[in-house]
Amino acid sequence: MATVPVTEHTRPPFWRDERVLTVVAQVVFLVVVVLVFTYLYNNVQAGLRARGLTGGYGFLQQRAGFDIGESLIPYTADDSYGRAFVVGILNTLKVSLVGVLSATLLGLLSGIARLSPNWLLRTLVSAYIEIIRNTPLLVQLFFWYMAVMLKFPRVRQAVELPGPIYLSNRGIAIPWLRPEAGFPVWIGFVVAGIVIGLIVAKWRTNYEERTGQSGYPIVAALVTWVMFAIVGWFIAPGTPATVAKPELNGLNFQGGTRMTPEFAALFMGLVVYTGAFIAEIVRGGILAVSKGQREAAKALGLNDVQMMRYIILPQAMRIIIPPLTSQYLNLTKNSSLAVFIGYPDLFFVAGTVLNQTGKSLEVISLVMASYLSFSLLTSLFMNWYNQRVKLVER
Amino acid sequence: MTAKAEVPPKRKVTPLVLEWMKDNLLTPWYNAVITVVLTVVIFVVLRAILRWALYEATWDVVLVNLRLFAVGPYPEEAFWRIWMSLGVVSLLAGLSWGVWGGRNLTPSAIVGVLGAVLLVLPVSSNVKWPMVGILALFILAHLASMGRTGFRRPLVWGWVLSFFVILFLLKGLGGSTLLTSVPTSKWGGLLLTVLLAIVAIVASFPLGVLLALGRRSELPVVKLFSILYIESVRGVPLVTVLWASAIILPLFFPKGVRVDNLIRAMVGMTLFSAAYLAENVRGGLQGVPRGQYEAAYALGLNYYQAMRYIILPQALRAVIPAIVGQFIGLFKDTTLVAIVGLLDLLGIALSVIAQPEFIGLQREVFVFIAAIYWIFTYAMSYSSRRLEARLGVGTR
Question: Which one, out of A99, B13, B113, B274, has a CA that is 20 to 30 A from the CA of B171?
Fold first, then answer.
């Protein structure tokens, strides 16, 4: 607010002096907030005491005594509540990470397909987006879980897809790599291939920028990587890994890896839902690139793929990144709906711990702090990425 | 892509349909491949879906429970109160359309056709006649008020008042015989879903605007508080907010004060939605040019007057689409109140499929409620696009 220079005799009385008023207003605001919080806090303390509950995070050391359906780290009912929390956090991270990657892919493809010159493809993708975006995620999750995953036949009559992939009401069994003796050596080669591939990509990009000739950085990097993987496969002692196929053994599948119906339903629900939103963001971003850019690319003789790769997508990215970030955050937060279908994510585990211990404030604060830090980390990463692709203004 | 430019003039005799097919389905060659593959896929999938919907699905589960889906366990003898509430809404909607929609008979015509269809359909008469009456009320109100722009202000107050009247009607009073109290645990189905969404958006609106102003305030304490609130609420999932409010809220009050389950959910949703609304409104505030603020203060308006008469009207108009979008999200998010055990539309669906006589009918039930949600949200996004076009957002 612009203020006229005030001298002693033009200064208004203190009850109309803006500088005094702002300070007073803030003090009053602060006092009210503190009073309200103290009142509520005291009530909560009194309420908890009346229920015979004491505070503190000491309970995290105690024995949990409940099982968790799936876990990335070894966990038994004898482990502590703290470890149960870690299992939940890891499960949330697992579904969020895999979900974010898959949803980005699905969204990118659908967004581009919605702009396809092919009417049939365009219409089909539009129908997918309009149906999914306009129905609640939770209804879709229940549908995936109860009306798809649990409707698969029993293990003995499992649907077999080529692979073999088995669909049954106990989950989805897929072939997976089983490491053998030479595995560490081979993995060493694969990692080295990634590093050298990146260097090759950098070198080809530089070449491209220096000479203006196509350097094919991505193709070159991929070829390098695959070569390393193949060479490593033969150099490593014995066979580094075999493909383990799932086989029916008693009441369940052995070998390969198995997705529980809960994970599969949550994963499908989150990916299909978020993918539809990302598709709209991608479409908006591409449409926002001005028509002249397209025409200029055509005039330069670039083909459709080159135009997308070098002209449209780099510019669209700048528009896409910020809303994309909030979709990633949404997916991570929406993974808490796992509690409704029984996938043991952070929120599900926290609910069980709360029921067993009654430590409401402590458990709630742990859950909130965890989700807040996920959100913060995602935002930080995406902001860093955004800085990189942002328009460099000269 | 566009083959139009390359078409030689003599090809103009080609029928339009073929021309269109060539442009949209067949060129270049890979589009023809996509078209062929997709045609086969769509044919197979559509046939499977239609076969299921027409022959295999047991839609009885929906027809038998239609009343549950609509209002949940709301007592039958108090249904007239729901009809009356709908009547009030219909009356106000008709008036609003007449007052704001200009001299356009289309809405009345559409509602008239709906009523005629309803008359022919084999619906039980205790639903048919109230519905027809409500639709007739809309048409009457619409025709009577067409073009009377002077009623705009009273109508806005009418809507505000109707909100409280309807809540009162539905809840009733303890001890009265005409309006016996209906406990909120008896509210359910679509009624509860719509009510939750409306209460949350209405209640979060003032809070959201205050938070947005707070975040742009020059008072550091207020600003810090607003930022902390907005960012921490936006960083956590809605389910956890609902869950926390269900657990903590009863503890906030001294012993003896019981907080209704529905109120807990409403408070949770309001607090949550206020943070998002604040961010939307902040976007609008940032879009108001600096000169407007300066002009307002130069005129000698104080902070309140400047906001009330100059800044907020411009800011809010710019963010109407965003707010409608948020409302749609909120409507979908009402499904999460199942976490505190309320019987909204989804809650009713879950309780229906848990009944032994409807075992194995999950698909039918979920498809049905998904369709209801879809109709509501699609209608909202459609009218939001219309509203956007009418207000000329982005073109002014």
Answer: B274
Report helix, strand or coil for A119: helix
Contact A142 B31 (CB under 8 A): no
CA distance A333 to chain B (A): 5
Set out the domains of chain A in order of their start, with CATH numbers.
81-153+262-389 (1.10.3720.10)
The residue count of chain A comes to 394
pLDDT of residue A378: 83
Residue B254, domain CATH: 1.10.3720.10
The answer on pLDDT for A128 being more than 90 is yes
Number of alpha helices (DSSP H) and beta strands (DSSP E) in chain B? 18, 0
DSSP B332-356: HHGGGGGGGT--BHHHHHHHHHTSG
pLDDT greater than 60 at residue A2: no
- Run of H or E including A259: strand A257-259
One domain for residues B167 and B224: no
DSSP annotation of B161 = H
Point out the least confidently predicted range of A247-261, A348-362, B335-349: A247-261
Spans of chain B below 50 pLDDT? 1-3, 394-396
Per-residue pLDDT tens digits for A215-235: 788 888 889 889 888 888 888
The chain B residue lying nearest A137, using CA atoms, is B332
Residues on chain B touching A339 (C-beta within 8 angstroms): 239, 339
**Pick from A243-252, A357-366, B219-228: least confident:** A243-252
- Cross-chain CB nearest to B235 (options A22, A124, A376): A376
Contacting residues for B103 by C-beta, under 8 A, at least 6 apart: B146, B147
Bridge pairing between strands A159-161 and A165-168: antiparallel
Domains: count for chain B = 3
C-beta atoms of B339 and A339 within 8 A: yes
Query: Do residues B120 and B193 both lie within one domain?
Result: no
Would an 8 Å CB–CB cutoff place A369 in contact with chain B? Answer: no
What pLDDT, in 10s, does the model give residues B328-340? 999 999 999 988 8
Count of pairs with CB atoms under 8 A, one residue in A, one in B: 161
Judged by a CB distance cut-off of 8 A, whether residue A294 touches chain B is no
Report the residue of chain A nearest B338, measured CA to CA. Answer: A340
Domain that holds residue B16: 4-56
Q: Which of B34, B240, B363 sits opposite A367 (nearest CB)?
A: B240
What local confidence, expressed as pLDDT, does residue A48 receive? 76
Q: Residue B268 falls within a domain, yes or no?
A: yes
- B14 & B122 share domain: no
> Does B286 map to a domain?
yes
